[in-house]
Specification:
By secondary structure, the protein is mainly alpha-helical. The protein folds into two domains: 5-56 and 113-161, no CATH class; 64-110. Helix content is 54%, strand content 7%. Helix 3 packs antiparallel against helix 4 (88-110) and helix 5 packs antiparallel against helix 6.
Length: 162
């Protein structure tokens, strides 16, 4: 029998056991709590690297989903017919570089930053989950959590698929 939304018991794990020698191997380790997501239990997340050191910008990846927008086709056509002086390879790399920059600007202005949207969604999920700990029977909060989880799933699928 499937558990009803209001039957959820929101609990989070609160302990981790490690050996002394392990802390010497991973001095930058960090333990945090994850999101409840589709379960009513909150996992413990263990990161063995310093999060500040891991921050890198994402490489540009053309998303196939962008092809459905006519503006992208216009950007590609405009950059492809641009007159550039130099060798064939220089012309090609320059056109691709310009196209990349124009498409990045278009996505930022038109679609927004999907990674930023994902982070914002995860923060909202965290807030709703905190409220659910005190009000697990709230249909409004459970419904809102479900909505945010579906929205997050779509964002993750968009990033993964394309």
């Amino acid at each position: 029998m499937k558990k009803e939304i209001t039957d959820a018991i929101y609990e989070r794990l609160d302990r981790v056991i490690i050996r002394n020698d392990w802390t010497n191997l991973y001095p930058e380790s960090l333990i945090t709590h994850g999101q409840f997501t589709r379960s009513d239990h909150c996992p413990i997340l263990l990161t063995t690297e310093n999060p500040i050191q891991r921050r890198k910008s994402f490489p540009f990846r053309f998303q196939n989903a962008w092809c459905q927008y006519s503006q992208v086709n216009t950007i590609v056509e405009k950059q492809w017919i641009a007159q550039i002086q130099g060798t064939r390879m220089f012309k090609l790399t320059h056109k691709l570089k310009n196209m990349k920059q124009h498409i990045k600007n278009w996505t930022h202005n038109s679609l927004g930053n999907t990674h930023q949207n994902l982070r914002a969604n995860m923060q909202k999920i965290g807030l709703v989950e905190e409220k659910l700990v005190n009000q697990p029977d709230s249909l409004r909060l459970n419904s809102w959590l479900n909505h945010l989880l579906n929205q997050t799933e779509k964002l993750l699928l968009f990033n993964q698929k394309y």
